[in-house]
Amino acid sequence: MQDDRVRAAKMTSAEENDKTTPPRRSTRYDTPAELYARIPQVLDLTQFRPRPDEDNLHYLSRLRGSTTPEEAVTFTAFAALPTAAAGWGYECLRQMAEHLNPVERPMMQDIAAWISNPTTSMRYKLMKDALWAPSRSPSVLLGLAVGWSTGGPAPNDPLRPPPWRTPQAVNSAVLSCLARAELSRRPIFLARIIDMAESLLRAY
Question: pTM, whole model, 2 decimals?
């Protein structure tokens, strides 16, 4: 009888392990056309326009093959949910870490800590440090993106930022860091960045 109970418990545990968790949504909208309609600020930053019938991945692929593939960065920053966009932006800067200044290391470390444990107190700290930074470096821009990602920028300012705030800062962070790279290496970095964008947009 005891053996039967042990076997039953193991079977229940195995069944629970077999259950898959539903995918977490990583994008704001199902189509780029809806994104452009809901957040028109992206129109000012891109020349390409989505087709009514294409999905996010297809549009990203078209941007990648266009004469302005950097627009794939802009689209991803706006298409992803704010926290996902900030996390993707961090990984993009990590890919180009050699082009970050040593003084940017503390900000990057704090952003990594927030990604691992996204507390409100750390978000406030990042926003404060970014606002008082002497220059708008890529890491500082990403710190601003985090600060605007999930609420007001400070405890005494509960007003939620407009939906274009975080993506605009993520876009600026990634593209400004890309601009620091040598011309010959920019396509390599951009290819890696767009590869990560594809994984992010496919996550939904």
Answer: 0.86
